[in-house]
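Researcher: I'm comparing several assemblies side by side, and this is the next one on my list. It has 446 residues spread over two chains. Same procedure as the others: predict the full complex and return the structure.
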Amino acid sequence: MESLGELERAVMDQLWSRTAPVSAAELRDALADRGLALTTVHTVLTRLEGKGFVAHDEARPRRFAARATREEHAAGLMHEVLGQAADRQAVLARFIGSASPGEADMLRALLADNP
Amino acid sequence: MLPLSALLLGLLAFALAWPVPVVLGRAAWTRRDPLAALVCWQAVGLAGGLSIIGALLVHGLSPWGGSLPEAWWAWLRHWFTGAQPADPVRGDHWVAQTLAAVLALELVGVLVLSLVRTARTRARHRALLELLVDPVPGVDARVLESPVPAAFCIPGARPLLVLSSGMVAELAPGELAAVVAHERAHLAERHHLLLLPFVAWREALPVLPAADRAHDAVRDLVEMRADDVALRSLAGASSRRTLAKAIVAAADGGAPRGALAAGGGVLTTRVTRLLDPPAPLPRWARPLAVGSAVALGGGPTLLAGSYKHLKRPTKLLVENLGGAGIINKKR
């Protein structure tokens, strides 16, 4: 039995690799090697919709698509974690909070002065 | 008449709202022992809140009895049975009571709100990461595809340590291990909990410069503390330099440009204390810091507990000041 997280990742990988929206049945067929029931695919899609990663249209049957590309998600996450808002959100513990343009030079000089 | 302890609590609140954070924020010893400094900041935050609320409460309830529990009881009885207070209740007593309630609700409410919001953000980040990045069996770190060098952790029941692919590309293996040790230290010591109240109260009290100052100091101290803890788990004589090089490389590789005062921020401080470690504080410093912190936290409570039954004001003053950590510190 595969974990839900793993299934969600597999479904997202499918959606990310496609350009057009797909129906749940098509997804089940694409993931045939996992032997999923259609209801399982629907469960996973509903969960992903709840998390805001997937949207569906009003066609019949419904077709599903990723809301943003993998790269957009990664960039968005980095922006949130590193940006100005991160302080307010208590996204703790970025290794380097922020560096002003002059500071990097100053740090390199420090390193050179202390062999 | 204003009870003596309301006056003392008010003075303590003022000290903790202005001069104490200024002095503690500028003190050079804090970078020699970030942990002791973090303990002091927690105490300043807690005692600051307790003393200002305590001062208002003691004054507001002073007509009702000689100690807070007694006064509270009399006050409650008044609402249910109509029993009259010992002394006449004036308008300023009502104002003080109301202010105390509003302030207490705001401080606690903002803290809870911040806790909920942070938990939600973390859950979202974790969900995203779990989708974006395949886990490596047996490793609690994940590599996120992004050119910007970054390392961060998501605390919680199942903590997650994240490195960007840019960071991995930028750093030598030893430096990467130092970064991971640094982030692990944050998680192991639950630094997010130390920071949380200061994040919350900075938002609750935007007019108070001390809230800003305290937040920034705690944020920086937590980073220094994580450096110290990381060094313990890193082998080799040059681990200090390795960690310093990792900081410089990460800062160099296009970390976001925040607005930072010229003359160096926390990164400069961190690199300097890694390369040229300051002498550790004397052995008695840490117990003293913890002792003062406990006294600071307990002082306001004691003061508010019994405010009127004082036969000898001078003796009481000395005892209370001792309890509040004011006399202690000069020991």
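Model: For your comparison table: Residues 255-263, 309-314, 321-331 of chain B have pLDDT under 50 and may be disordered.
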